[in-house]
Design brief:
Elements: H1 36-63, H2 75-107, H3 117-128, H4 135-138, H5 141-156
């Protein structure tokens, strides 16, 4: 016999089953068509917020990773470094997300279609790879590429757990 738990007396609510559909009715999910003029800025804003948060974390760990960086007199330098990294990560990932959405729209692919890595590859080539040209952004390139890889895994629907 199973042991008694505190949840045994709580009634469970179960959803009532839906009535069966007629055989001649086809259920097709319809994605509302939003003009690209609204989708691209929203994608860019999402990239700015997510990239900015990752940039703050990167700048904090980069600044405070040494004993000298954690010294109270260097706190201003650390904050400046965090702001710079937030701007770099936020700007690059906003450009990546906006470009990816614009490429997806120009190519005519829908969000409901299977994952198309071409959109991410074009957006990466146009926005992330130019970071290799400047020495300030060059050292953050692996971290931004990891952010792009996480986004691509999420877009593809791969379950990692």
């Amino acid at each position: 016999m199973a042991p008694h738990t505190a949840w045994d007396g709580v009634p469970s609510r179960r959803a009532k089953p839906a009535p069966p559909l007629a055989d001649d009715v086809a259920v097709v999910p319809v994605e509302p068509e939003v003009p690209w003029e609204k989708r691209v800025p929203k994608a860019g804003m999402f990239g700015m917020v997510l990239g900015g948060c990752c940039g703050i974390a990167y700048g904090m760990m980069d600044s405070w990773g040494t004993k000298e960086g954690r010294a109270p007199e260097n706190f201003g330098k650390a904050m400046k470094h965090m702001q710079t990294q937030a701007a770099i990560f936020g700007g690059v990932f906003a450009a990546y997300q906006g470009t990816k959405e614009a490429v997806r729209t120009m190519r005519g692919t829908q969000r409901s279609e299977p994952y198309d890595p071409t959109n991410a590859a074009i957006a990466t080539a146009l926005t992330v790879l130019p970071m290799a040209l400047h020495p300030v952004t060059r050292k953050t390139l692996p971290h931004v590429l990891f952010l792009v890889a996480i986004d691509s895994v999420q877009d593809s629907g791969i379950k990692l757990y």
